[in-house]
Amino acid sequence: MTPIFFFGSKVPLPGGEPECGPDEYKPEDLSWCCKRCPAGCHVSADCGVNHGVPKCSPCEPGSFLSHPNGETSCWPCTQCRADQEMVATCTRTRDGQCQCASGSFFCDSPSCVENCFRCRRCPGAVLRPCNVTHDTVCDPEAGTEAPGKELPKDVSIRGLVSFFIVLGILLIIAVFFVMYRYKKKGLKTRISGQLAGGVASGVLWAMGQGETGAASAWGRPEGGRELGAAEPRGRSPPVLLAGVWPHHWSFSFWKGRLDGPDSAEYETEYFVADTSNEDRIYYEFENRISDKHWKTFMRFIGLQDHDIDICECQNPGNLMEQHHQMLLRWRIQLGREASVFKLFAALHKMQLHMYLENTINGLVAEGILVRRSETAD
């Protein structure tokens, strides 16, 4: 019998330890290897086959993992001591960073793990103030240092008055600068809908997510130009400002108050002719919308950050699958209320007209979406 040799394969020997790759880990009490979870995620369930992918979950707030791993839980974030201040907040992929409190404490070693030292106080002139790495340097001609000695009251009062004078001047300059810019650019505010308590508030919407050169007219454009595929009639245009949509805004609050057509208006202009393959319909959105705008789009339609993190952790490096899973979660959460027309309305309200028109035209070209005007006799 001719012997058969295997080269380069990572098949574990019977009774021996498996040979795991650098991007893998060996679960406890198992005889195979699993792929590591990405940074910011931990293993919530090991893989079921050799070299398989485990189930990964995002780190909870207050914890982190800074590298690909096989950990079953995330590491707790560093907490700054009373004599320290935080210079970098903790995220899912990075620990927080602390340093000695500026102006009060210093450290003369690279790490300062154990404690910081209180800055000395000078009886006279200060040659160099205390900072996080060096103690105060006093004028030697003024005598020896006086640790813990209180400053004279008149010196403290003069310093406090000077501080408030400088602060007042800076505030006045800032106010005049803002008034000048507003006057120069002719910025206008719109009044939002009446809030829950009956209080009307002026809302200035800063949107930087719109595509350059994309159509933003609602209703009939000037010069008698015909409306595009994604431009429903009968709405007045919103007042938009160039800028970036702040991440901390509540999308669930704003999405219902921004001017624009709702899903019902799109449903009066189009209908889905082929409902047999919903995945193909939603794939058009996943394929058309760039990764730059995708998560903003998901937050706008109501998907929570925790759901977004889970989709990213469970599909590391695969953007298309991340997009698919996020949209699938949204569809499951809304159930029968989820529709392609809600997504059309969301893209229009976000001023992402290029994505909107390309998606509609793609679905129409495939015969999945049909304009009602073309079927009416």
UniProtKB/TrEMBL annotation:
<feature type="disulfide bond">
    <location>
        <begin position="77"/>
        <end position="90"/>
    </location>
</feature>
<dbReference type="GO" id="GO:0009986">
    <property type="term" value="C:cell surface"/>
</dbReference>
<protein>
    <submittedName>
        <fullName>Tumor necrosis factor receptor superfamily member 1A-like isoform X4</fullName>
    </submittedName>
</protein>
<dbReference type="GO" id="GO:0005886">
    <property type="term" value="C:plasma membrane"/>
</dbReference>
<dbReference type="GO" id="GO:0036462">
    <property type="term" value="P:TRAIL-activated apoptotic signaling pathway"/>
</dbReference>
<dbReference type="InterPro" id="IPR034062">
    <property type="entry name" value="TNFRSF26_N"/>
</dbReference>
<dbReference type="Pfam" id="PF00020">
    <property type="entry name" value="TNFR_c6"/>
</dbReference>
<feature type="transmembrane region" description="Helical">
    <location>
        <begin position="160"/>
        <end position="180"/>
    </location>
</feature>
<keyword id="KW-0053">Apoptosis</keyword>
<feature type="repeat" description="TNFR-Cys">
    <location>
        <begin position="58"/>
        <end position="98"/>
    </location>
</feature>
<keyword id="KW-0472">Membrane</keyword>
<dbReference type="InterPro" id="IPR011029">
    <property type="entry name" value="DEATH-like_dom_sf"/>
</dbReference>
<keyword id="KW-1015">Disulfide bond</keyword>
<keyword id="KW-0732">Signal</keyword>
<feature type="region of interest" description="Disordered">
    <location>
        <begin position="213"/>
        <end position="233"/>
    </location>
</feature>
<keyword id="KW-0325">Glycoprotein</keyword>
<dbReference type="Pfam" id="PF00531">
    <property type="entry name" value="Death"/>
</dbReference>
<keyword id="KW-0812">Transmembrane</keyword>
<feature type="domain" description="Death">
    <location>
        <begin position="294"/>
        <end position="363"/>
    </location>
</feature>
<dbReference type="InterPro" id="IPR052491">
    <property type="entry name" value="TNFRSF10"/>
</dbReference>
<feature type="repeat" description="TNFR-Cys">
    <location>
        <begin position="99"/>
        <end position="138"/>
    </location>
</feature>
<dbReference type="InterPro" id="IPR000488">
    <property type="entry name" value="Death_dom"/>
</dbReference>
<dbReference type="InterPro" id="IPR001368">
    <property type="entry name" value="TNFR/NGFR_Cys_rich_reg"/>
</dbReference>
<feature type="domain" description="TNFR-Cys">
    <location>
        <begin position="99"/>
        <end position="138"/>
    </location>
</feature>
<feature type="disulfide bond">
    <location>
        <begin position="59"/>
        <end position="74"/>
    </location>
</feature>
<keyword id="KW-0677">Repeat</keyword>
<keyword id="KW-0675">Receptor</keyword>
<dbReference type="GO" id="GO:0043065">
    <property type="term" value="P:positive regulation of apoptotic process"/>
</dbReference>
<keyword id="KW-1133">Transmembrane helix</keyword>
<feature type="disulfide bond">
    <location>
        <begin position="80"/>
        <end position="98"/>
    </location>
</feature>
<feature type="domain" description="TNFR-Cys">
    <location>
        <begin position="58"/>
        <end position="98"/>
    </location>
</feature>
